[in-house]
Amino acid sequence: MHVRTLTGGLVAACLVTLSLTGGQAVAAAPRTVDAPLAARVLTYDAAGSAEFRSAVDRGAAIWNESVDAVELRPAAAGQRANIRVLADNGWPRALPTTLGNGTVYIGRQAVDQGYNTIRISAHELGHILGLPDRKPGPCSSLMSGSTAGIACTNPYPNTAEKAEVEGNFGGALAGRAPAVRAGVIVD
């Protein structure tokens, strides 16, 4: 996972903080420049993903390798997950409810047509992380989905997709709140 750090004016503001206590100025302990920012942890439950379990785990790992602001972890037994992942016979789709929450379906219809299961998993998780479809699109764009064709097996988000997820989950630091669209996203 990438190193999470604070930069720019925020660092300068944290280096020396003065507070008035009983009429005296007291210097607060400086914040280290390399202090890591905590990622927002989202849990996923892939118990219902059947034969796609390893593809779902790999899709989550790809996002963890690609961005700093969010981390996807399997839910512990009995824990309510942010993301449910299910297998069915339809087309892959995501039903985001709020940013970082929803249900993903790994549809066998696309797999039967030859689409890559890890790319499908990473793509659908991308929707839960706030990314829209970008169709038509090249194989280098994870969110181009099926328009890249069955020969495309690239499961990695491109630079713009990574930056968008970083902005979605680091919204307070980035100075903007993410737009969240609830509904079904069919790929």
Task: Characterise the protein shown here.
By secondary structure, the chain is α/β, with parallel strands linked by helices. It contains six helices and eight strands, in the order H-E-E-E-H-E-E-E-E-H-H-H-H-E. A six-stranded mixed β-sheet has the order 4-3-5-7-6-8. Strands 1-2 form a two-stranded antiparallel ribbon. Residues 1-32 and 172-181 have low confidence and may be disordered.
Which segments are poorly predicted (pLDDT under 50) over 5 or more consecutive residues? Answer: 1-32, 172-181
Q: What's the gyration radius in Å?
A: 20 Å
Number of strands: 8
Label the structural class: alpha/beta
**DSSP strand content:** 15-25%
Q: Roughly what percent helix?
A: 25-40%
Distance between the termini: 28 Å
Question: What kind of sheet is the major sheet?
Answer: 6 strands, mixed
Strands ordered across the widest β-sheet = 4-3-5-7-6-8
Order of helices and strands: HEEEHEEEEHHHHE
Mean pLDDT: 82
Number of helices: 6
Tell me, briefly, the overall form.
globular
